[in-house]
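Reminder to self: tokens first, then the designed residues, so the page reads top to bottom the way the pipeline ran.
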């Protein structure tokens, strides 16, 4: 088997939360659908035009899939991506040491650099792809329920159709690509810290908090704290933005270059630390 494929398969088998969380949410939605359909004789759907007029401008666009339902699906899949990302990156290297699999992989013809690179691919590519299937399933569920219960006029008004569904999925993939780029330095930093600390996320939170406080005290300015907050919140801002790539580029080329350099530095440090050098 291809070494990279073998490593990705190993990560998927060892970190079951990545697949179990989306499957749990999908199963929950199926149960909800069954309950709705089992009571379809007593189910009614009433629409007041005044309510829709007050609601639509805030949460929907005429060309977006399913209005607020599509937005909820989009945000839920994005949040599942972030939860899976942070859970995986915080545990994968420490899990290797605890379970003794690190010594096993050192005996295989796989370099430490390739092993860490595969973990980055899993965190930044495979996890978003898996959660994209959750979005696809949720959108198909909305489409099926809409075909079952809603009048055609309402389906048209809220773009509940397969073309809009495909566009919705494409927008999610694009957003995940931008978010993964923003999370690249974060993943490298977490990988490095997790090799000698059992709680890397808490450690990073404390470091960020102390840096903000010290920056405010030493320079009598919140500029450093504001910049850290901008970088720290970049991934969630991308997820919630209508223009994810614009949000990514809005932080400026110097910042993006600095984040890339940070990612490279911590990637190298992680590889060297993992190899025992």
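Designed residues (277 positions):
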């Amino acid at each position: 088997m291809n070494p990279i494929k073998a490593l990705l398969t190993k990560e998927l088998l060892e970190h079951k939360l990545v697949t179990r969380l989306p499957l749990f949410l999908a199963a929950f939605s199926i149960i909800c659908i069954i309950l709705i359909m089992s009571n379809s004789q007593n189910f009614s759907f009433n629409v007041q035009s005044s309510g829709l007029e007050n609601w639509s401008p805030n949460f929907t666009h005429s060309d977006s899939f399913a209005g607020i339902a599509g937005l909820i699906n989009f945000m839920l899949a994005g949040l599942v991506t972030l939860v899976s990302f942070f859970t995986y990156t915080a545990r994968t290297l420490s899990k290797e040491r605890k379970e003794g699999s690190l010594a096993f992989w050192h005996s295989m013809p796989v370099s430490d650099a390739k092993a860490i690179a595969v973990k980055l691919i899993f965190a930044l590519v495979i996890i978003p792809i898996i959660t994209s299937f959750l979005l696809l399933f949720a959108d198909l569920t909305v489409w099926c329920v809409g075909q079952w219960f809603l009048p055609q006029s309402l389906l048209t008004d809220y773009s509940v159709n397969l073309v809009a569904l495909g566009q919705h999925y494409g927008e999610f993939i694009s957003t995940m690509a931008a978010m993964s780029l923003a999370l690249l330095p974060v993943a490298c930093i977490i990988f490095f810290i997790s090799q000698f600390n059992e709680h890397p996320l808490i450690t990073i939170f404390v470091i960020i908090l102390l840096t903000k406080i010290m920056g405010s005290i030493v320079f009598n300015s919140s500029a450093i704290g504001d910049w850290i907050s901008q970088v720290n919140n970049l991934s969630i801002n991308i997820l919630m933005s209508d223009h994810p790539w614009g949000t990514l580029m809005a932080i400026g080329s110097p910042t993006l270059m600095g984040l890339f350099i940070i990612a490279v530095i911590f990637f190298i440090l992680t590889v060297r630390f993992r190899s025992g050098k």
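Confidence is low (pLDDT under 50) at residues 49-62.
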